[in-house]
Design goal:
mainly alpha, 4 strands, two-stranded antiparallel ribbon, about 270 residues, two-stranded antiparallel sheet
Length: about 270
């Protein structure tokens, strides 16, 4: 709780709209859990509330992470507000569409079965494209600005943003083929909760690890700084090696999926 407050308090002060959107994602998570417990409808072999549950959790984590990271950048109050408000509102609209479609019992992604569903899917694509552009902005700003953190953590943040953009590109690959599975139609046997295919390739694996690089790599940099008495140069080297290994893992899971192989064959 102590560490969570160290993140929440500066975010609430610097970006109140983003903070409350994070709280809404917590509420959405609870709603989805209630739906999971009381609604027996299924879609493509899983409960209709599994997908919005996953997106509520991952979206809330991403928005909170971005909100906290912006407090490290030497942004003006106006620039910070614009960035955080755009991210918060666009991703709130996206999760709203996902929850709405789940409540209807229909797909949110790759659903063009009617003009209305097609419009919602296209809207989600536009909302995500806006966020990818903001990720690219963060890459440039992390290169050109001095963040209020150590050199190794700033380097980790830069690597995180670069890999997140790749993870988003993997999402674009799924959109281009209008499916996340490779080798079989979407649906069927999958791992618990994440539902990654256990019988064929699944691009969601690389997408997932790519999008969470912005948490994993900076956390590793903080761990190295706290646990190891390394010089700045060696901390950066450790972060670089870890980042390359992490990127290699994502590249492997992407290749594995494109070859039609499941991450875990069952």
């Amino acid at each position: 709780m102590k560490y969570l407050n160290q993140i929440l308090n500066p975010v609430k002060k610097a970006s109140p709209i983003l903070y409350w959107v994070v709280i809404l994602h917590v509420i959405f998570t609870i709603i989805c859990l209630l739906g999971l417990a009381t609604d027996e409808r299924t879609l493509m072999g899983i409960n209709v509330w599994i997908k919005p549950l996953k997106f509520s959790i991952s979206g809330g984590i991403y928005i909170l992470t971005l909100g906290f990271l912006t407090t490290l950048y030497p942004y003006s109050k106006r620039k910070r507000s614009i960035i955080t408000n755009v991210v918060a509102i666009t991703l709130l609209l996206e999760i709203g569409i996902i929850i709405y479609q789940a409540a209807r019992g229909v797909q949110s992604h790759y659903n063009v079965s009617s003009p209305f569903d097609g419009i919602l899917f296209a809207a989600m694509g536009i909302l995500i494209a806006i966020n990818v552009l903001i990720m690219v902005l963060f890459i440039f700003d992390t290169i050109r600005l001095k963040l209020n953190t150590s050199k190794s953590v700033q380097w980790a943040i830069l690597l995180g943003w670069i890999i997140v953009v790749f993870g988003s590109w993997v999402g674009g690959q799924m959109i281009s083929q209008m499916a996340h599975n490779v080798g079989v139609a979407d649906g069927g046997a999958g791992l618990p909760l994440v539902n990654w295919s256990t019988i064929a390739g699944d691009l969601r694996v690389a997408h997932f690890f790519g999008l969470h690089a912005i948490q994993v790599i900076p956390l590793f940099a903080l761990w190295v700084a706290k646990k190891w008495n390394f010089t700045d140069k060696n901390q950066i080297l450790a972060v670089t090696i870890f980042g390359l290994l992490y990127a290699g893992w994502i590249a492997y899971t992407f290749y594995q999926a494109k070859m039609g192989m499941a991450l875990i064959q069952l």
